[in-house]
Design brief:
It is built from eleven helices and seven strands. By secondary structure, it is α+β, with helices and mostly antiparallel strands. The N and C termini lie far apart (68 Å).
C-alpha cells in the first residue's frame, strides 16, 4: 500500500519537474492595461447598442451570415464560393459606408451629445427649460390642443441646431403663449414647420426638421416623425401638438412620449432637473 502511494507521489513530483515552471513567463498587468481594456469594452458596448437601434442591426446580422459562409467554404475547399465572397466583401465595405452614411453620422452625433461628454464639457447647473418659458409653451400647447391646431416647438439645449435654423424665418421675440398660438394659426404664413426657441427667445419659425426612419407607429404622421427625427440628432426637447387628436407629446433623445397631461410634463421636467443637478454635484465633488 505504501509503495503504491510513494509511486503516485513520485509520479506527481516528476510531472511538475517536467513542467519546468521557471521558464514560464507570466505577464504583469499594469493599470494602463486595465484602463485600455475598459475603454475598448465601453466602445464595443456603445457601438453594439447603436447598431441594435438602427437599420445597421440587419446589416450586422447579414455580415455574420456571410462570415460563417466564408469560413465554411474555406474549410470545405469550395474555392470558387470563397473567392466570390471575398471579392464581394471587399467591395461591400465601400458600399456600406455610402448606403449607411446617415446611420454612421447619427451614431457619431449621439456619442457627441452623450452623458459622458455633457458632464465633461458642459457642467452648467442652469434649468433645462426655465419655469416661466415652460409655462408659456405648455399654455400654448394645450390651448392649441383643444382647438386641434397642429404645432411643433423645438427648445434647443446643448447641441446647436444651426442646420434647422437656416431653413426657418427669423423672428427673435420673447416667448409668449399668445405669439406661439398666433404663429401656428391655420393658413397663416408661419404656421407650417417648427418654431425654434434658443436662449429663451423665439428665434425662427417654419423650420424644416429631418424625418425619423424609426418605426414610431402607423397612426402618427409627418409632424411626429419630424419631431422624433430632430430629437435623434440633438438633445432638444420638442413639443408636438397633434392636429388630428389635439394630444400633446414630447420628443427627446429619439423617444416620443405621447398623450401627456400638463401635470405629467411638469413632473417630467422636475425629475430631469433633479437628475441633472445630481450629476453636476457628483462631477464637482459635492455628491
Amino acid at each position: 500500500m505504501n509503495s503504491t502511494v510513494d509511486g503516485k507521489i513520485s509520479s506527481i513530483s516528476m510531472f511538475f519537474e517536467g513542467l519546468n515552471l521557471s521558464k514560464l513567463s507570466i505577464p504583469s498587468i499594469r493599470i494602463s492595461d486595465v484602463v485600455d481594456i475598459l475603454i475598448v469594452a465601453i466602445f464595443i458596448y456603445i457601438i453594439m447598442n447603436w447598431i441594435r437601434e438602427t437599420r445597421a442591426w440587419s446589416l450586422f446580422k447579414g455580415m455574420i451570415v456571410i462570415l460563417i459562409l466564408s469560413m465554411l467554404s474555406f474549410r470545405l475547399n469550395l474555392y470558387t464560393t470563397y473567392w466570390i465572397i471575398q471579392e464581394t466583401f471587399s467591395v461591400g465595405v465601400i458600399a456600406i459606408l455610402i448606403l449607411f452614411q446617415p446611420e454612421f453620422r447619427k451614431g457619431l452625433e449621439q456619442i457627441g451629445k452623450g452623458s459622458l461628454t455633457k458632464n465633461i464639457f458642459n457642467s452648467s447647473s442652469q434649468e433645462i427649460i426655465p419655469k416661466n418659458i415652460l409655462d408659456e409653451i405648455l399654455t400654448a400647447c394645450f390651448i392649441m390642443g383643444k382647438a386641434k391646431t397642429g404645432a411643433i416647438i423645438v427648445v434647443e439645449q446643448k447641441v446647436a441646431l444651426g442646420d434647422f435654423e437656416e431653413s426657418g424665418i427669423p423672428i427673435d421675440a420673447i416667448v409668449t403663449n399668445q405669439l406661439l398660438i398666433n404663429i401656428f394659426e391655420n393658413k397663416t404664413p408661419l404656421h407650417d414647420g417648427a418654431v425654434l426657441i434658443r436662449n429663451n427667445r423665439i428665434k425662427r419659425a417654419t423650420c424644416i426638421l429631418p424625418l425619423t426612419r424609426s418605426e414610431i407607429g402607423l397612426d402618427l404622421g409627418t409632424r411626429h416623425r419630424a419631431s422624433v427625427g430632430a430629437s435623434e440628432v440633438s438633445d432638444a426637447y420638442i413639443f408636438v401638438v397633434s392636429e388630428e387628436t389635439g394630444a400633446v407629446s414630447i420628443a427627446h433623445n429619439g423617444k416620443l412620449h405621447r398623450n401627456l397631461t400638463r401635470e405629467q410634463i411638469e413632473d417630467m421636467f422636475k425629475q430631469q432637473e433633479k437628475q441633472s443637478a445630481k450629476k453636476i454635484n457628483i462631477w464637482k465633488g459635492r455628491g
